Amino acid sequence: MQKNDSAISLEQIEQLLNAEELLAAEMRCRQLLDLQPNQIEVLFLLGNCLARQGELEKAVECFARACRIAPDKTVLWKNRGYLQQELGDRQGALDSLQHALALEGNSAELWVALASLHVADYAFEQAAVCYRRALQLGHEDPGELLNRLATLQVYLGETEKALDTFEQAIQAASSRQQRSLYSQNRLFSMHYPATVAPQEIAAAHRQWGDDYFGAKGAIRFSNEPAPERRLRIGYVSADFRMNAVCFFIQPVLKWHDRHSCEVYCYANVKKPDVVTRQLQEIPAVHWRDISSLDDGQACELIRRDQVDILVDLTGHGADNRLPLFALRPAPLQMTWIGYPDTTGLRMIDYRISDAQADPPGMTEALHTEELLRLPGCFLSYNPGVEFPPVSPGPVAANRFVTFGSMSNFSKITPHLLILWAEILRRVPDSRLVLRYRGQEREQIAMRLGRQLEQQGVAAERLQLLGHASSVVAQLDGYAVMDIALDTFPYNGTTTTCEALWMGVPVVSLAGRSHVARVGASLLSTVGLPQCIAETPEEYIEKAVALANNRPLLAGLRQNLRQLVATSPLCDHQRFTQGLEALYRSAWRKWCAAQTTEGR
What we know:
Distance between the termini: 85 Å
Largest sheet: 7 strands, parallel
Radius of gyration: 28 Å
Oligomer: single chain
CATH class of the largest domain: Mainly Alpha
Low-confidence stretches: 1-8
Number of strands: 13
Helix content: 40-55%
Shape: globular
Mean pLDDT: 95
Number of domains: 3
C-alpha cells in the first residue's frame, strides 16, 4: 500500500532533522502547517527543530499550541517543560511538568525532571520526595539519584543520613567513574557530623586514593633541574569564578613575582562569570581553559607548558580534576585552599598549610601528602571592593546580644546546637541568628526550635534568615549580629573572614584536625587569639564573657575592619613572597633529588 503525502512528508522532515538540515526541516513543517494547522505530529517536529536551532521561545510557543490542541499528550507537556526550564521560566516549567505527571504519574524521568526544578528553586525537601518516587518507579540510574538525594540531605542538615545514602549510591553505581565521584561526595560530607573521627576521615581518603589510583609511578620529566631558575607554577581549579576560592587566589595571582615565577591558570570552569573575566585580565597570567579537555589532553597540555609545580585548588570539591593529578602532569604537585583535608591521592606530594591549622606533630598522620607550612596563615584574604560598610552593633538598640553564624547550614549539627543553647542560657535575653537558603525555612526553624526547647531555651530566641542572593546580601546579615559563633568540627573559612571584616568578632573551638583549626589560624593572624577556645567549656565561657563585655564589643565593632586590613591576612605581597619561598624550597629539594639520581 502506498503512503499518503502527509506521511511521506513527515518522514522527510525526520530525515532532514537527522541530517541536521534544520532550516529545510523548518520550512517543510511550515508548509504542512499552512495546509493543516492543527497537525500535532508536525507541531511536535517543528518545536524540536526550533529548539535545535536555539529558538527556544519560539519552540515553547509551538509546544504550547500543540498542548492546547492535544492536552492529553504527555510528550508535548514534557518537552514544553524542559524548554521552559532551559529558558529559566521555572514556574512555567513546573506547571508543564506537573501537567505531564498528571497524565503519566509512573514516569521516573518526569519525576527526576521535576526534582531538578525544585532544586533550582531551593525546595530541597520537595526535590527529595521526587527523587524517592523516581527510585520507587525503577529509574534506570539509581546510583545517580541516590547521589543527588544524599546531596539534598546534606543541604537539609541531615548529614549522617547523607553518609548512608552516599554509600548506597556507591554500591548502586553503574561505572567505576561514578563510584569514584560518589565516594568523593561522601568524603567531603564526612567533615560535617561531629560523630566521625578525624582518623576515620583520613582512612577513607587514603582508601579512595588507593582504590582508584594506587601508588606513585616513576615518571621522567624534561624540566630543567636548575634550583634557582624561573619557576613555572600552574594552578588548577573549577572555582576561577564567583566562589569563596576567588577571595584567596586573586591576590596571589596579582602579586606573583614575574621575574621568579611564570604563572599558568588551568580553568575547569563550566560557567564563566565576571570574576572569571577579571582573573583572565591579570597581567602575565597564562590562561588555559581545560573544561572541554579530558584528563589525558589536559595532562599533555600541562606537560607542553613545562609546568614545574602544579597546584590543586579544589580537592574533592565539585568539578575537581584530581584524576588529572593522578596522571602526574608536573614534577611537583601540591594541594591548597579549596579543600580542608588531605586528597588521599599519593601522586600529590605536598599540602600547603600553617602551624596553627596543622600544628607540627598533630596532623601529619592524617595526610597522604607531606605538609608544607607557611610562616603565617595559609590564607591571604582579599575582601571585595563592593562590600558594605560596617553597621552599628545591634546590641545598643536591642538591649540584648545577638549571637549567630552565616556558615553553611550543613555545618550546624545537633551537638553544636547544644553548646549554643548553653551560651543562650547563660546570657539572658540573648538571641541566635542563622541562615538557611532552602524553601523549608519555616520547617527547619521549627525543628531547630524544638531542639533548643529541649535544652531549656525558648524557640522564639532563634531567627532564621533566608537565602542570600549575593555576597553583599550575605554580608548584610551581620547587621543583626553582635558575635559570630564558629561552627565545629567543620570551621568556617570565608564566613569567618567576612564576619571579622564586618566588625563581628568570632569565637572558635580548635580541634585536632585541619578542618577544625582554620578558625584558630585566622583569629591568630588578625590578632584575636583570645577568641580561640581549646575545649567546649572554654568555647562557651569565651562567648559568654564577650557578650557580657559591652564596651569591648563596641570597640571591636568600630576597629575590627582596620585590624583585619592591616594584619598579615591582608598583606598580599608578603604572603605571596612566603608562598613563593615555599615553592622554591620544594623545587630545590626536587632538583637535588634529580642530581642524586643522575649519579
